[in-house]
Amino acid sequence: MLLLITLFLPLVFAAVTYLAGDRLAKISAFTGSLLTLIGTVMLAQPLLSGSTNAITFATQWITNPNIQFALQVDGLGWVMLLLATLLTPLIILSSFNKVIDNARSFYALVLLMQFGMMGVFVSADAFLYYIFWELALIPIYFIALLWGENSDKAFRNRAVFKFFVYTLAGSLFMLIGFIYIYQLAGSFHISQLYGIPLTDVEQSFLFWAFFIAFAIKIPVFPFHTWQPETYKEAPAVGTMLLSGIMLKMGIYSLLRWLLPVLPHGVLLWTPLIIVLAVVGVLYGSLIAFRQDHLKRLLAYSSFAHVGLITAGIFTITAEGFQGAVVQMFAHGVNVVGLFMAAEIIFQRTGTHSIAQLGGIRSVAPWFATAFMIVVLASVALPTTNAFIGEFLLLYSVYKYNTWLAVVSGLTIVFGAVYMLRMYQYSMLGETNENTQVFEDLKWNEKAVFTAIIILIFALGIQPSFITDIVQPSLEKILNYSIR
Amino acid sequence: MKTLLYTSLLGIACMLAEMLNLRRLITPLASVGLLVIAVLALTQWDSNEIAHNNMLIADNFSLAFSALILVAASFIIALSGHFYKNEQNKISDYTAITVFVAAGAVAMVSFGNLAMFLLGLEVLSVSLYVLAGGKRKQIKSGEAAMKYFLMGSFASGMLLFGIALIYGETASFDLQVIASHIESYQPSVLTNAGVALILVALLFKVSAAPFHFWAPDVYEGAPTLTTALMATISKVAAFAAFYRLFSACFIPVYPVFAWVFTVVAILTLVIGNLSALQQDSFKRMLAFSGISHAGYMLLAILSLYGKTDNALFFYAFAYTFASIAAFSIAIVVSENTGSEKIEAFNGLGKSKPMMAAALTIAMLSMAGIPPLAGFFAKYFMFSEAIKNGHLLLTLVAVIASVVSVYYYFKVIVAMYTTSSEGKHIFQLKPVYATVLLVSVALTIAAGLFPSVLANLF
Question: What number is the ipTM of this complex?
């Protein structure tokens, strides 16, 4: 019951927020997302007390075809749920000092998107999962289309539309894949799909039907071309939602819906996918190196990070899975911090160009410190949250193939270089006319950064909090994946 | 089989009302009357009544489609009072003819005899020819009527010829007799030729490629309300008749024509979607999108030996109400701005947020975005097609459906990202608001609770 309430809270508050009017919208949205977070935390009780059973809820939705409104929260699902419900209030809070026109629609859409994303993480029925998957897409399309800030409209329309069509195209193939499996299984429920007997040829084709959908969302090289432009065009809140939570839907789906369902198909294509993922790591880092646009740089660096996560998952090892989950969480937190910093810089200076910045540290020390910590976390400094995840991922890739590990290891060094260089050019040195007057952090920004920094260190020092809770669910997935 | 009788009587009543000086009551009367008849039709559920020597069969299939058609007709008539406000002296004619369209459509979905089928089709078509020319002073309307009439007559001729050939082979118009004859004998050349001719006529009626050329011009030229009528009732009735005829009689000859269906479905999907991409007129865009929807519905005909009637009904339902919502907004907007281009919708999101939201939902449903009715409609189609082994065709349909997002979103983008420059100053008539609200509500409800409609037959 608590699960149902928690899941539907954002939907209810989306309506409340819309009705509350523009002035109260952000408060209502923030309250809603906080309540959802509380619900999620309360949900963890049986999981924390050592129970390995998932929290489930199921009722028949459609009898023919056999579709259930089936929800399930196991360790993995809960961690993802926590990520979504933890980041949404932070993201909403980060926009508090901004004047947003038609705020009630904006915040209602944000909550609607949260509802969709949470649904993806808790669905235990493939069809329901698919509906939530698509449901999350519509709000972000409108958020990016209507509240995007910079550059000309025609370009934005194109970029956002490209994102939409790309994602939709991918997911329709996934739908076909699900329909095909349904004809054999007679049910969409996840328990019927795990271990379903399919010939190797079928698995090999179905693999692509699913993988393309997830690869576009994550994104995996070469399905990433929508990403940098969309991140750049979307408003800060949209970019944070996309990079912080939404792309995790793809990675989560690899673990939940691809590997255990089609183990032979996965095995067949693993070498190719790992190489693609590592190419993505390399490619993303190299391009990030050359970026002057702050948001594009962060987009490419994020692309490189998720490439490593994908590679780790496709090694199909316990370390790879663990590392992927830890890193998903860490990346979500860090990337929200990074895009928040980019947004603060843009709000104060009106530019995203790194070349036009400099010297901000001397006028805004609080901001500089917070930004520094987030940058260091994102380059996986030990004791920060990304370190343990990246370590586990590299280790799993190393076990799979030494050379691939060397390449991805090197790119992490690259990552440190371009991130620190970005920091140096934008924050250190002399101030110029853009950065002379740079207001330091406002209260809401301080609150968000505080929360992020706490999360960075808490998970950096005590990653076992996540690894313990996801352990049983990952083991189960691993067992199905290595048949 | 009282549905047909009542509908026809209602049409006559509309004409009589004019004589009795009850002009103002005509549209409300007809609109409510049709709804009542729809409810009466549904009360006969599961009765499987057979009337007039097998002429009409009121099985659940025909009742469901009759109800859908009558409700759609009721909505369209409700809109017509305002739509024809400058021609109030002819309102009885318009309304009566629209009711006769519905009567023809009802006959087309409940026939048990080829003669009845032809009668229904002709009543529907002749009424539509007249309505297409309804705006007498506009040359485009006349052109539409003429084109539709010429092409439609050819199609009717082919149908008649086909029926004659079938009669020559089986010596009967009765579906049951024909079916048992075709089952017990090897299909002869005569049968195949007859089926081919009937097939062409039906493909023409549902505007499937390559028999679709009339549709865009006629849709654009005809008064918008008539376009709505053609896009919804005429197409739905034709598909129901298509399904009824082929599933009742022609399954044994189906293998001969399987490749025709496949080619036609692919052509319809590709041509419909690619042509819709290039339109800047909203009505033409809807015409081509209607062609592409015919392509999806053909998937049901293609897999009909797997009993796809329910999938077809669901699709017809989703398509009908999304179309009515879209057309009713198109009427209001084009009346207000004097333009039928997509640009006319510019800025609607700011000036009329509720209307824009309604149109957005209609467009999203047509594009097949969950959890709206259009998504489940497409889902059921795809799933039937895959079940019956048409995997490749399904992939084409999926790609077509991705393409379709482009033109549906063109409208959405126009509404929300551009400014209206002071257009759209009007009050939405209560009737329009009601029709819009009900259509959109049905679109959403059928998406949230698809089971209600998904297991009718």
Answer: 0.85
